[in-house]
Design goal:
By secondary structure, this protein is α+β, with helices and mostly antiparallel strands. 28% of the residues lie in helices and 38% in strands. The chain has one domain: Thiol Ester Dehydrase, Chain A, CATH 3.10.129. The protein contains 4 helices and 6 strands; from the N terminus they run E-E-H-H-E-E-E-E-H-H. The protein has a 6-stranded antiparallel β-sheet with strand order 1-2-4-5-6-3. The longest helix has 19 residues.
């Protein structure tokens, strides 16, 4: 099973920025154990949603010719917890795009409240080599997230 931490794109500007949302439903498995009676979204999954949003922006910049993997979280800061019932908005901006990888800056909001912010570095991997090392199932671009991106582009036109 592949976990997706974005529900849809709100905005997408190629090679520049993207905005996506995730509705935190109490019905999601993660809230059963984290934490019973106080359904908190784990900070690592908040970062994963931000990375998925940024990774799609980076991958699309090169027409998905290469695989994009999270290489490093340069910095991350959490301002408050995100709870079941909230809607998170992931906003990312492409800071640097090079042949070997890219860097994005991102913020996560719930309404007007800043939940988290991070700077994330991605690496580009050759398609054939990446399948040998990681296997196709470990990349989000091959499935539902690319469909979400397609829907966002249709809405814009």
């Amino acid at each position: 099973m592949r976990w997706m931490w974005i529900d849809r794109f709100l905005e997408f500007t190629s090679r520049k920025s993207a905005k996506a949302v995730k509705n935190l439903s109490r019905a999601e498995d993660v809230f059963r154990d984290h934490f019973p009676g106080w359904p908190v979204m784990p900070a690592s999954l908040i970062l994963e949603g931000l990375a998925q949003t940024g990774g799609i922006l980076v991958g699309e910049a090169n027409d998905f010719r290469e695989k994009v993997v999270l290489a490093k979280i340069n910095k991350a800061r959490f301002h408050r917890e995100a709870l079941a019932g909230e809607q998170l908005t992931y906003s990312v901006e492409l800071l640097d795009l090079r042949p070997e990888g890219a860097t994005i800056s991102g913020m996560v909001h719930s309404g007007n409240d800043l939940v988290a912010e991070a700077e994330i570095m991605f690496a580009h991997l050759d398609q054939s080599r990446s399948q040998q090392v990681f296997g196709e199932q470990n990349f989000v671009f091959s499935g539902d997230l690319r469909k979400l991106l397609g829907l966002a582009k249709l809405l814009k036109s």
